[in-house]
Amino acid sequence: MSGNNKNNWSISRDNLYRQVPTLGAEAKVLTSTASGSVVVAHTRYPAFSGEGRAFPYAVIALCTGGGGRARREGPGVFLDDFWQPGKLGVSMPTPAVAGFTPELETLTIAFNPSDIPFCHSEPFSLDGFELLSNDLFEDELISAVMVAILRDAEAHGAGSAFFEHGLSLILNRLKKRISAQSRQDDKQGRNQQLNDALAEIEQRLDQDLTVTDLANVVNLSPRRFTRLFKQRTGYTPFMYLTKQRMARAQLLLRKGCSVTDTAMAVGYANPAKFSAAFRRWLGQNPSSWQKHTRTNA
Q1: Residue 61 and which of 1, 48, 72, 237 are 20 to 30 A apart at CA?
Q2: Which residues, other chains included, contact 158 with Cβ-Cβ below 8 Å and sequence gap of 6+?
Q3: Which SMART domains does the UniProt record give (predicted)?
């Protein structure tokens, strides 16, 4: 890091130190690295409502006391959750955001994202960390490491090898959480896509509907759509479509509809093709099935 950047971060740190008492906060611990690019604080804050100040640091905060509902809203940020002891929150450098927070005691690590990590052999990307800004969460390992970092910082300042290793561990742990959250989001997204496909089938049983049509509805290739659809339902899209058509055909035939009308109502323009499909699925042609059903009614 250049000397000029060091100076800039020392200015940011000094500004932060000056802000703490103006917020009515009580700082139990407030220390930083020599450059000012990392600050460790154990602070009690009063309840706040309104527009906060722009903040140049990324922040990892652990609630150690107090709690209640909190809301933050701004560019790329929307949090509406409840703080309580043990809950963690992450925020990236942001312009001023509006909202409110309850009275809180927090253990906070604020750091310059471009100055981390200290003990990684290659650059550490914070891509995706904004995903963590919209929810509070619990993680016993991160909480324990943060408390250990605080104790170490109290004894040795925010520049020891233990401090650097601890922050590195926290960031990697958060990275794994982001990956898991992204996989969950992908899964939920796929579930929604398949729900949309199932709804499309029900709405268009009376139409000529192809696998490609369904795949286009959910923006997937036919091959990928077919694989995911079978994983979810146990059927290929064509088999499921046929199953639903035959289920509706049985209802219509039971109500006394003609074979021709039933065929049209379930997407078959040619009654002979409908009869062949019905026989493959149920072992009888539609007329015989309808007659048998009426006889046994």
Answers
A1: 1
A2: 31, 32, 33, 38, 39, 40
A3: HTH_ARAC
